[in-house]
Each structure stands twice: as C-alpha cells, then as structure tokens.
Amino acid sequence: MAVAADSTDSGPVRAAVEATVRAFGRLDHVVADAGFSTHDNLADADPDQWREMLLVNVLGPALLVKAAHPELTNGGGRTVLVGSTAGVKNTPGTM
After folding, report:
1. Which domain holds residue 81?
2. By the 8 A CB rule, do 8 and 55 touch?
3. pTM for the complete prediction?
4. Domain-located, residue 1
C-alpha cells in the first residue's frame, strides 16, 4: 500500500498511519526515510531551502514516530530511522 503525503504535515502523516491500521489491522513497524540536502554552500545558499530541509529531515521523522507510537506500543512494533552519511562525514556542497 502506498500513501502519498507531505512528511512535514502532521495531518496527512497521521492519516497515513490510520489508513495502514485500517487496511492491515495493526502496525508492526515504521521506517522514517525522508530527507534531502540542499547541495549548496554558505555563500550562495538559500535559507528558505535550509528551512525546508530541516522540516523534512527532522520534523518529518518526529511526526511519523509520534503518529505511529500508540499503535507500535500496543503491538510491540519497531521504529527504524534512516540517517545520512552527511551526519558523519561532511562533503563539499552539502549543508
């Protein structure tokens, strides 16, 4: 089952979790794997793109975990958070 939603908007994220539970009867796990980099540098970067990046990379996973938590707790499910190598090794052009 695929559900298209904006990962930074709590309503659609919650609705996706609810639709999954309705379709399958329970929630065994969630995988937070949304993220991107702006591929710019400090001199020519667009702060609005930084804001969008932070919302997707930080707020998005938090909203998913919050929405899924009650169902995962009830069924002993698991949460998987996917990270980026950018958090370990900085490369030119990534902010």
Report:
1. 10-87
2. yes
3. 0.85
4. no
